[in-house]
Design goal:
Blueprint: H1 11-24, H2 31-50, H3 57-82, H4 90-107, H5 112-137, H6 141-160, E1 182-183, E2 186-187, H7 188-206, H8 208-218, H9 220-225, H10 230-253, H11 267-277, H12 289-308, H13 314-341
Antiparallel strand pairs: 1-2
């Protein structure tokens, strides 16, 4: 089933139908994703020569572990940005979920399943709050999520109670960076992320419900007239992101035995950077979760490379910033070209 508005009869209508389909259902792998794969490959080769330790398991495994929480939240953020929205509250959601899990691992001895379920449920609740306010409040997403980010951060700090959570047990070690957290050398957190990404890729590409998100980003009013339940879809996008932020929080807690109040800080910017660099249009209507994974891998490669080369850490921010500007500029040029052709 392809959602579209019936065009006027004749040639112009046919061209519009083809244009709509090509926008809603892109090719399996885009040109930007191919470029990203090439850039990442070149960077890995350069870093392998510049610092031989980079290509060792001791370097690659933590890199993939660091990619996992950014990429898994990026799945939801990709859907949000495809619909024309944005969520700057995910860093604060991580803080709330992580501190709840960490404190109860220490005080209540939660098991792994309980910690996962509670964290995902709390994240889903916070994402649902965002979704309801944005979908039914008719206020721009950046305003709502900036407000909720401050509220969630206040809540997280209250739960922290001005203290660091120390001596966190290794209950979540199977999701961490240690031996228990890997199978055949691949971090479990990264493997879970890839599985979820594959499901999201299939859903967005091959189901009517997935294509509705693209239709909303392309033209929300046209999608509504075509029968798409726009408000419900928008709410689901923010709910999904909250659920994935709850899962990512467990990945983060599993990486150490202490948890500070800065947990989650800046994660929203890292996630948005991965999504945008991965080729998802800030204008809405186009995007790919595969590109988001590649964007997260590129960002983490740059960060890891700068650290191993002993360069100032600010350079990684500079390189990522340049990459974002190039990605956004390229997207705007492509969009302008499409409009000119139409």
């Amino acid at each position: 089933m392809t959602t579209q508005i019936a065009p006027p009869a004749g040639g112009p209508g046919e061209s519009r139908e083809v244009s709509s389909r090509s926008r809603v259902l892109p090719s399996p792998i885009t040109g930007q994703e191919i470029v990203l794969i090439g850039v990442i490959a070149v960077l890995w080769v350069i870093l392998a020569f510049a610092t031989p330790a980079f290509m060792t398991a001791g370097s690659i495994q933590p890199l993939l572990g660091a990619v996992a929480p950014i990429a898994v939240i990026g799945i939801g953020m990709t859907v949000i940005i495809i619909t024309g929205g944005i969520d700057v509250s995910v860093g604060a959601i991580i803080m709330v979920c992580a501190v709840i899990v960490a404190k109860n691992l220490v005080s209540a001895g939660w098991s792994l399943p309980v910690a996962l379920l509670v964290s995902i449920a709390v994240g889903g609740l916070l994402g649902l709050i965002n979704g309801v306010l944005i979908a039914y409040g008719r206020v721009h997403a950046i305003i709502i999520t900036f407000g909720t980010a401050n509220i969630f951060q206040w809540l997280g700090l209250k739960i922290f109670n001005s203290t660091t959570v120390n001596s966190i047990p290794d209950t979540l070690a199977t999701l961490g960076n240690g031996e228990q957290g890997r199978t055949w050398g691949v971090p479990h957190a990264f493997a879970i992320t890839v599985i979820l990404l594959a499901i999201a890729w299939w859903y967005l590409r091959h189901t009517a419900g997935g294509r509705h998100f693209f239709a909303i980003g392309g033209d929300a009013q046209a999608a509504r007239l075509a029968g798409v339940r726009v408000q419900r879809r928008v709410l689901l996008a923010y709910l999904l992101t909250g659920l994935l932020a709850g899962l990512a929080s467990c990945f983060i807690v599993a990486q150490g035995s202490n948890l500070g109040q800065n947990v989650g800080t800046g994660k929203e910017l890292a996630v948005i950077a991965a999504v945008v660099i991965g080729g998802t249009s800030i204008m809405g209507g186009r995007g790919s979760v595969l590109g988001t994974l590649l964007g997260a891998l590129l960002v983490q490669t740059v960060t890891s490379g700068v650290t191993q080369l002993g360069w100032p850490s600010q350079l990684s921010d500079l390189f990522v910033g340049v990459a974002i500007i190039v990605a956004v500029g390229t997207d705007l040029i492509r969009e302008r070209a499409r409009r000119a052709r139409r």
